[in-house]
Design goal:
It is a single chain. By secondary structure, the chain is of the alpha/beta class. It folds into two domains: 179 residues, Rossmann fold (3-Layer(aba) Sandwich); 66 residues, rRNA adenine dimethylase, C-terminal domain (Helicase, Ruva Protein, domain 3, Orthogonal Bundle). It is 36% helix and 21% strand. The protein contains eleven helices and nine strands. The strands form two sheets. It has a seven-stranded mixed β-sheet with strand order 4-3-2-5-6-9-7, with helices on both faces. A two-stranded antiparallel ribbon has the order 1-8. The longest helix is centred in the first third of the chain and has 12 residues. The structure holds S-adenosylmethionine. S-adenosylmethionine binds next to β1, α2 and β3.
Length: 264
C-alpha cells in the first residue's frame, strides 16, 4: 500500500527507469547515492552501473524491505533517514539520483545545489511544473526564486517528460527528469544570505525591486544601486549577484555616485 503522504508513486515503466539510470550514471559510476528508493525499482537499474551505492529511504517499512531484499549485496548500503536533513558533503565522489517525493523535491534540490560536496551531478524525476520553474530563463512566466537559485549555483538541463501512466499509483500531474550540475566556479558569496536576498527580490513577483527591497537596505543605498524600477523576473542570475554586492557594499556605490562626479 503506497503512502501518498510520503509522495509514494512508484515507477513501473522499465524504459523510463533505464533512461534515468543512463542519465545519472552513463556507462558507470564509482558511487551512486539514491534518494527515496521505495521498493527498489530504480535501485535495481542503478546497481549494475555502480561500483558502490547508498540509498536514503524515510519509510522504515520500505527500508527494512530493501535491506532484506539486498541482504547479500555488499555494494549497497540502505540508510533509513530523511533526505531533507542529509549532508551531501559527507558522501564521497559520485552522483546523486532520485525519483523524488514531490512534496520535498524543491527543498532537496535547493539543499543539494547549495552544498553539493563531491556529488558531481543530480538527476531528478520531479513534478514537471517544478522542473520548468527550475529551468526557466529571465522574462519567462515561470522564472523566479527557484530558477535563479538553481541556475546561479548549478547548470540545469531539462532532459525528458514522464507521463502519469509510468507510475503506480499515477500522480495527478505530469513529471519530468532534470539534470542539475553544480558549478565549479561559483563566485565567493555568503550563500545563505545571498539566497535570502534572491527570495526578498521575488517576495511580491509583480512589484519592482525598489518595493521588494525596502526592508533589505536603506532607501539611499537602494537608489544609489540603480535599476530599481525593474522586477526580479528581468534579471539574470549574475545580475542578482551584482545587485547584491552593490547593496552589501554601499560605500563603494555611494562614492562612485558622489556629487562631484555628477554631470553638469
Ligand atoms: N524510487 C522509487 C521508484 O521510483 O519507484 C520510489 C519513488 S517515490 C516517488 C519517493 C520515495 O521517497 C518513497 O519511497 C518515499 O517513501 C520516499 N521518501 C519520502 N520522503 C522522503 C524523505 N524526506 N527522505 C527520504 N525518502 C523519502
Amino acid at each position: 500500500m503506497a503512502r501518498q503522504k510520503l509522495g509514494q508513486h512508484f515507477l513501473v515503466s522499465s524504459k523510463i527507469l533505464d533512461r534515468i539510470a543512463i542519465a545519472a550514471c552513463g556507462e558507470g559510476a564509482d558511487f551512486v547515492l539514491e534518494i527515496g528508493p521505495g521498493r527498489g525499482a530504480l535501485t535495481e537499474k542503478l546497481l549494475p552501473r555502480a561500483s558502490r551505492m547508498a540509498a536514503i529511504e524515510l519509510d522504515y517499512e520500505l527500508a527494512a524491505f530493501l535491506r532484506e531484499k539486498w541482504a547479500g549485496e555488499p555494494k549497497l548500503q540502505i540508510v533509513e533517514g530523511n533526505a531533507l536533513s542529509a549532508d551531501w558533503t559527507a558522501w564521497g565522489e559520485g552522483v546523486l539520483v532520485g525519483n523524488l517525493p514531490y512534496y520535498v523535491a524543491s527543498a532537496i534540490i535547493t539543499s543539494y545545489v547549495l552544498r553539493p560536496g563531491a556529488l558531481r551531478h543530480g538527476v531528478f524525476l520531479i513534478q514537471r511544473e517544478v522542473a520548468e520553474r527550475i529551468a526557466a530563463t529571465p522574462g519567462n512566466r515561470e522564472y523566479g526564486y527557484l530558477s535563479v537559485l538553481c541556475q546561479f549555483f548549478a547548470e540545469v538541463k531539462l532532459l525528458f517528460s514522464v507521463p502519469p501512466g509510468a507510475f503506480h499509483p499515477p500522480p495527478k500531474v505530469d513529471s519530468a527528469v532534470i539534470r542539475v550540475t553544480p558549478r565549479a566556479d561559483v563566485p565567493e558569496v555568503d550563500r545563505e544570505r545571498f539566497v535570502r536576498f534572491i527570495s526578498e527580490c521575488f517576495q511580491h513577483k509583480r512589484k519592482t525591486l525598489r518595493n521588494n527591497l525596502l526592508e533589505w537596505a536603506p532607501r539611499d543605498v537602494i537608489e544609489a544601486a540603480g535599476g530599481m524600477d525593474r522586477r526580479g523576473e528581468q534579471l539574470s542570475p549574475t545580475d542578482f549577484l551584482d545587485l547584491y554586492r552593490k547593496l552589501e557594499m554601499p560605500s563603494q556605490v555611494v562614492e562612485a555616485a558622489a556629487p562631484g562626479d555628477e554631470p553638469n
